[in-house]
Amino acid sequence: MALTVTLVSAEEEVWSGEASLVVAKTVEGEIGFMTGHEPVLAILAEGQVRITQADGAKVIANAHSGFLSMEGDELTIVAGHATLTS
């Protein structure tokens, strides 16, 4: 089973798909998400969002000014600004 991940900025949807692991920076520190993670609502800090897709491919985005929400196996990251770096 995989996480369903959506990363959006104020301008556009930056990335969406399935992932086995997502690591993001919050104002409390870095947090990693895998399937079965408890529900979380956190404030996003400026930094990288690192997504490992189900096939092992990596996606990296720079993001800041927003929040993330984990509910069930769905992770939504809403950033004021986000861009893919790879």
Automatic annotation (TrEMBL):
<dbReference type="GO" id="GO:0005886">
    <property type="term" value="C:plasma membrane"/>
</dbReference>
<keyword id="KW-0813">Transport</keyword>
<dbReference type="InterPro" id="IPR020546">
    <property type="entry name" value="ATP_synth_F1_dsu/esu_N"/>
</dbReference>
<dbReference type="GO" id="GO:0046933">
    <property type="term" value="F:proton-transporting ATP synthase activity, rotational mechanism"/>
</dbReference>
<keyword id="KW-0066">ATP synthesis</keyword>
<keyword id="KW-0139">CF(1)</keyword>
<keyword id="KW-0472">Membrane</keyword>
<protein>
    <submittedName>
        <fullName>F-type H+-transporting ATPase subunit epsilon</fullName>
    </submittedName>
</protein>
<dbReference type="InterPro" id="IPR036771">
    <property type="entry name" value="ATPsynth_dsu/esu_N"/>
</dbReference>
<comment type="similarity">
    <text>Belongs to the ATPase epsilon chain family.</text>
</comment>
<dbReference type="Pfam" id="PF02823">
    <property type="entry name" value="ATP-synt_DE_N"/>
</dbReference>
<dbReference type="InterPro" id="IPR001469">
    <property type="entry name" value="ATP_synth_F1_dsu/esu"/>
</dbReference>
<dbReference type="GO" id="GO:0045259">
    <property type="term" value="C:proton-transporting ATP synthase complex"/>
</dbReference>
<feature type="domain" description="ATP synthase F1 complex delta/epsilon subunit N-terminal">
    <location>
        <begin position="3"/>
        <end position="82"/>
    </location>
</feature>
<keyword id="KW-0406">Ion transport</keyword>
